[in-house]
Amino acid sequence: MANDKHFFAVDLGATSGRTIVGSLVDGKVKLEEVTRFPNNLIQTGGHFYWDIYALYNEIIKGLQQVAKQGIEITSIGIDTWGVDVVAIGKDGAILRNPMAYRDPCTFSAMDDYLKNVISKQEVYDTTGIQFMNFNTIFQLYAMRRAGNEALTHAAKILFVPDALSYMLTGNEVCEYTIASTSQLLDPRTKQLDERLLASLGLTRSNFGRMVNPGAVIGVLTDEVQKMTGLGAIPVIAVAGHDTASAVAAVPAKDEKFAYLSSGTWSLMGIETPDAIINETSFERNFTNEGGIEGTTRFLKNICGMWLLERCRKEWGDQAPAEYSQIIAEAKAQPAFVSLINPDAPEFANPSNMQNAIQDYCRKTNQPVPEGYAAIARCIFDSLALRYRQVFGYLKEMAPFAIDKLHIIGGGSRNELLNTFTANSTGVEVVAGPQECTALGNVMIQAKTNSAVKDIWDMRRIIAASIDLKHYAPQDKEAWDKGYDKYLKVTNSK
Q1: What's this model's pTM, rounded to 2 decimal places?
Q2: What 3-state class would DSSP assign to 148?
């Protein structure tokens, strides 16, 4: 492998973004942050928007910085959150800042669409995507219903990472992994479904050409080259959906693994060659999203550290400021005293999370946890047991035996929850990397540039570049009893 490959990764989240240079040296990958910046929602006229121009400007600043530092980058790749879109006019101009998935216009759109346009079963049978009111299909329906002028006059509709790539290159594409979040794509054909598009008054021509992760979108325009001081650098369609880039960075040795992308929210799933769409996956609300090299990410969204993050804000000075101390005190609490279903509706966005947890325990005739340590223990126990439940669903539906669970993302640093998860699921847990999304972005660029061979070469290099922690399952009998209690308390099957 060459020692002079440097890749520029743009990693955009719902609250902040970063530009990063990833370098391949001596069989290892190294990341160096170039810039970090906020991603602010704009509220105006009763709607919430993303500032696409501000994000573009931050990418330009990052490129200017690497040019100033004399770093010779090989290519550029952009990943972002899913579902949101940008309308492009016939003259090639952006018609309006993109509406954000948090916009209230979609709140009633999903139920209205499924009742009056195409049934829930038909939509799932076509797309295999779990139902969330902010999926692109319902956003576009809400916009069409409201007479949105940007949508009315759109010649092209681009997902956010594709729109930013368009601003850099002038070329319009529809990257597969980000398109798969829309609930408009058939994972069997790997194309946008004409019937679903027609239900929104759209056709396939309203979207860019479909490209897979690793495709070259184009090179920087003359305008961008002049602004940045760079040459005709290629822009690569990485896995544009940040979770797809993250899963590409799972340091697995073979396909017999499940992954848990752990943070504020948790995503647990497997990587499969084909979509899994059947009555069971429909009932359990599993989703089939695009992965790299033609794979499907079969997964389920689970509530994550959102529960504890909300509680910490409510505790204020009544709890230690140090997260590690809260974890230590939670660990010292007795196990399985009080349990909740982390995905119960009452925890979605309560006015007070601590009260919601206590009310749940009260209603289910359990001891009511008092104080931050007992509440934190309730959260950790419950998350680990919910992970076991979803892991069990995966084992039932997976086309292969699962012998390992990889935990990636910020939650991979939480040793207590990692230990509990290993004990609860009964399989070895491998924790790391934390910076999985940026690593996946960089390594897909590396593959395009022939610096790595395939996904398994990517994963081998990532595993050699970071410190992985392994957790072996213990205390099986105690966790089996805890799980029995969890099923009774949550009335789960």
Answers
A1: 0.93
A2: coil
| Contact present, 292 and 215 (Cβ < 8 Å) | no
Question: Which residues, at least 6 apart from 467, have a Cβ–Cβ distance to it below 8 Å?
Answer: 432
Place of tokens 């076991």: 388
Q: How many CB atoms lie within 10 A of CB 44?
A: 8
Contacts of 400 (CB under 8 A, 6+ apart): 255, 256
Element containing residue 477 per DSSP (H, E): helix 476-490
Residues near 267 by Cβ (< 8 Å), separated by ≥ 6?
243, 259, 260, 261, 299, 300, 301, 302
Length of the chain: 493
Which one-letter amino acid corresponds to residue 148? N
Q: What is the CA radius of gyration of the chain?
A: 23
Active site positions, annotated:
242
Q: Which contacts (CB < 8 Å, 24+ apart) does range 310-318 have?
A: 310/350, 310/353, 311/353, 311/354, 311/357, 311/372, 311/375, 311/376, 311/379, 314/352, 314/353, 314/354, 315/354, 315/372, 318/372
H or E, element range at 216: strand 215-219
Task: Using pLDDT thresholds of 50, 70 and 90, give the confidence band for residue 1.
Answer: very low
User: pLDDT tens, 320-379?
Assistant: 999 999 999 999 999 999 999 999 989 988 999 999 999 999 999 999 999 999 999 999
CB atoms within 10 A of CB 488: 11
- Pick from 263, 13, 343, 288: which is nearest to 124 by CA? 288
Distance separating alpha carbons of residues 46 and 209, to the nearest angstrom: 33
Sorted by sequence, the CB contacts under 8 Å of residue 316 that are 6+ apart come out as: none
Query: For residues 231 and 219, what is the distance between their CA atoms, to the nearest angstrom?
Result: 9
Q: What are phi and psi of 100, to 5 degrees?
A: -90, 150
Cα distance between residue 395 and residue 233, in whole Å? 44
Helix (H) or strand (E) holding 44: strand 41-44
